[in-house]
Design a protein that fits this description.
The chain is α+β, with helices and mostly antiparallel strands. The chain is 34% helix and 20% strand. Strands 7, 10, 11, 12, 13, 19, 20, 21, 22 and 23 form a ten-stranded mixed β-sheet that branches. Strands 4-3-5-6 form a four-stranded mixed β-sheet, covered by helices on one side. Strands 14-18-17 form a three-stranded antiparallel β-sheet, with no helix packed on it. α1 crosses α2. The longest helix has 17 residues. It starts with a helix and ends in a 6-residue tail after the last strand.
């Protein structure tokens, strides 16, 4: 292949110098940066002389904007001679008068390139410079480097294909893969000039975080592409039949597919061998975006009335703040972001989430913040100040925030599925144990035997000596141990009693130790039908079932602390509970109740507010002596968490959990296998009905549901270890076992 011949042929077709180099296959960036100097070696002497003559005569007076007419007819004028002098009708030179009365002259526009549509011609670049400068002035990026990208009209693909087919016909052996991509040639030519205009350094997109994209529009784009319907009719007929899938008729991908099998003859037959250029492609927009910045840290949540993300229900805010908003505030201030813009450009990525009433203590929960299109990098001093501002809230503490890379997020995402968490919970024993030989009317107490059973309980194959000396249980004992300690709605109890009689669930010979999902749902449906006199749908049933708990917590003393009123989520489950008691004898009880009243020496007034935020169904209980509850949960006379929990080893308990009823509206109904890795229990002094547990679980374990069993949907439950009904009063996350931030 003769490069000079190819160059001359492309010029004959109407290509600009830069496109001629592209079809020769020149991939040297310097060639496109100085096209005029580089093309000399491909031109004949006569062409070189002609070029110099044109350069000398390329100024003409003009005082109007570019139009289709003055682009096509760039220099022809009846009133201009060959030397560029302006003449009147009599042939008299009046150029001096023109110079005095006309606006400043500018360079004559060259003919529009038939290949790039003037995208590679310098006379067409000024619009792009102006648009980019305007965007950069508004955003004020501090980045010193940039990368550029081009969005060219799709018609350039059609024109490139037509020219390469002509070259292959004219020069046998010409390979269309020789062609240098338009976007590369544009980057090497326009990008270098743009760098000087905006005072930044052009760099690779893989290195520079700032990307400048210019969008070019060609008025005849769709009109020229219409011929492809004749070149590849089957492709576009299929696309027209699937308008929902293919919203746009001509896309870059569809045009490429149509041109793959196109021949020069087929293009010419369709009228698109190489259509004449009517107008140039114009730069209509510039988009400047900075790569996201990522920050990492851990947050400690001290409040039991604070969701992780804003809690919006039916368009109204339920709680005034959230962990997300508290962390966002100082970061948004640094970037002057307000309201919706802050919500749009800041994204919280956390390793899981805790319920609104659950504290997150210890080192805190790992999180990352993605900042979209940041204008600058935050300094270490600013990040330290952000931590101080977050911690001033008194509800959330962040000790350190450090910058990380996008690749580091993989560790955080993977940790959501593989991490384990340690919890500390305050639990209450709601019924006598099936192992207790006491009067049904006697006070309920947590016995040393109960603590021992919890600490030794396991169901994994590694330990087959579980409860080596189990006590014999009778049907009477089972009934007495499952007796509710409060009065339940008569209608509901009648329905449950009928259900028990029909199922004979208390027979010792029964082998079915679980209540089916259908049975539970029937109970829920019937309860609501009795209470409302109607049959609501499933979503209404789940939403309307509420547990009304009036708690009498044993008085633990004030401990010289100030009285405060703190909202605590006492029952996050908010649905009917199933007091299943399952042991080696196969004895079970299926009493269900909707309210629980705990005996106490001091009655606390409680106000319950049931709220469903679409992601959480919570019962908020307000007490005047919540500090007492906090003291009970934080009591560590028997040892700290690190002393009580052994080092993690093999799985101790394997549980099967169905999707909790409270989240069924947003998660599929599945049965998931989860693991309890460690479990220790200690009694709470001076409170015979309470005990604390320290438990380490695998990721995704619903700890509250595991504690009370939730209608037998979580098996085995904590109550199965004790042989009694158990529920959870307060829960803390004390450790999230994940190395974060990355070191």
């Amino acid at each position: 292949m003769n490069p000079k011949a190819v160059f001359k042929y492309c010029k004959h077709l109407g290509c600009c110098d830069a496109c001629c180099l592209r079809y020769i296959g020149i991939k040297n960036p310097n060639a496109y940066e100085n096209v005029a100097n580089f093309v000399i070696k491909y031109q004949d002497n006569e062409d070189t002389k002609l070029l110099k003559t044109v350069e000398q005569n390329q100024t003409t007076p003009t005082n109007s904007k570019d139009t289709k007419e003055n682009i096509l007819d760039v220099s022809k004028s009846d009133n201009q001679n060959l030397n560029g002098d302006t003449l009147d009708v009599d042939g008299k030179d009046i150029s001096d008068e023109v110079d005095r009365n006309s606006p400043p002259c500018k360079k004559r526009r060259l003919d529009v390139c038939v290949s790039c549509l003037s995208i590679l011609q310098q006379d067409n670049w000024m619009e792009g410079y102006v648009l980019v400068k305007d965007v950069l002035f508004k955003k004020r990026y501090e980045c010193k480097t940039f990368a550029c990208a081009l969005s060219a009209p799709i018609a350039t693909l059609l024109r490139e294909r037509a020219i390469t087919l002509r070259l292959a016909e004219e020069f046998p052996g010409y390979d269309d893969k020789t062609l240098t991509a338009l976007k590369e040639a544009w980057k090497w030519s326009f990008g270098v000039k743009l760098a000087a205009e905006i005072n930044k350094t052009l760099d690779s997109g893989a290195i520079s975080p700032l990307l400048i994209t210019l969008n070019y529009d060609y008025a005849d784009d769709l009109q020229e592409l219409e011929i492809l319907k004749q070149v590849s009719p089957q492709l576009f007929e299929e696309r027209s039949k699937q308008k929902r899938r293919f919203v746009t008729e001509f896309t870059r991908r569809s045009v490429e597919q149509a041109l793959e099998s196109a021949s020069l003859a087929s293009l010419q037959a369709a009228g698109g061998g190489l259509p004449a250029v009517g107008v140039r492609a114009m730069c209509i927009g510039a988009v400047c975006t900075h790569a996201p910045m990522y920050l990492a840290g851990r947050y400690i949540k001290l409040s039991r009335n604070l969701p992780q993300s804003p809690w919006i229900l039916d368009g109204k805010r339920v709680l005034p703040s959230s962990v997300q908003e508290i962390i966002y505030k100082p970061l948004a201030d640094f970037y002057n972001l307000e309201g919706e813009e802050a919500e749009r450009r800041l994204k919280l990525i956390a390793a899981g989430r805790e319920d609104v009433d659950v504290r997150c203590l210890g080192e805190g929960r790992p999180f990352a913040i993605e900042i979209t299109d940041p204008t600058r990098q935050l300094t270490p001093e600013e990040l330290a100040k952000a931590c101080e501002e977050i911690s001033k809230s008194g509800e959330v503490i962040v000790k350190q925030i450090v910058p990380i890379t996008r690749e580091d997020l993989v560790q955080l995402k993977k940790g959501e599925e593989t991490k384990s968490k340690t919890y500390e919970a305050l639990c209450i024993k709601l019924s006598h144990s099936i192992y207790d030989d006491v009067s049904p009317d006697s006070p309920i107490k947590v016995t040393p035997e109960d603590i021992a059973r919890i600490n030794s309980f396991r169901n994994t194959p590694q330990n087959t000596t579980q409860n080596s000396n189990p006590e014999q249980v009778t049907t009477k004992n089972a009934r007495e141990s499952s007796k509710p300690i409060c009065k339940t709605s008569k209608n509901i109890m009648d329905i449950v009693d009928n259900l028990k009689l029909s199922k004979n669930v208390l027979k010792l010979e029964s082998t079915d130790n679980n209540i089916s999902m259908a049975t539970c749902q029937n109970v829920l449906d019937t309860c609501n039908a009795v209470q409302k006199g109607e049959n609501p749908n499933k979503s209404e049933i789940v939403k309307d079932i509420k547990m009304n708990t009036s708690m009498n917590i044993p008085d633990v003393g004030n401990r010289n602390s100030k009285d405060t009123s703190v909202d605590i989520l006492n029952k996050s489950n908010g649905v009917l509970e199933n007091e299943n008691i399952d042991n080696s004898e196969g004895v079970k009880d299926t009493d269900m109740e909707t309210s629980v009243k705990l005996a106490d020496a001091k009655t606390l007034d409680t106000n319950e507010k049931v709220v469903d935020n679409g992601a959480q169904k919570e019962n908020l209980v307000s007490t005047e002596n919540m500090n007492d509850m906090e003291d009970v949960l934080d009591t560590t006379d028997e040892g700290t968490e690190s002393d009580i929990l052994d080092s993690p080893g093999e799985v101790k308990i394997t549980i099967q959990q169905k999707t909790p009823i409270r989240v069924l509206h947003r998660r599929p109904l599945l049965t998931r296998t989860r693991q309890i890795l460690e479990l220790k229990a200690v009694a709470v002094p001076d409170h015979p009905q309470l005990f604390r547990i320290f438990v380490r679980t695998s990721a995704g374990t619903y700890v509250k549901e595991w504690a009370h069993g939730e209608l037998g949907r979580s098996r085995p439950a904590l109550g199965d270890a004790v042989g009694a009904r158990v529920d959870m009063l307060a829960l803390d996350v004390t450790a999230v076992h994940l190395t974060w931030p990355p070191r």
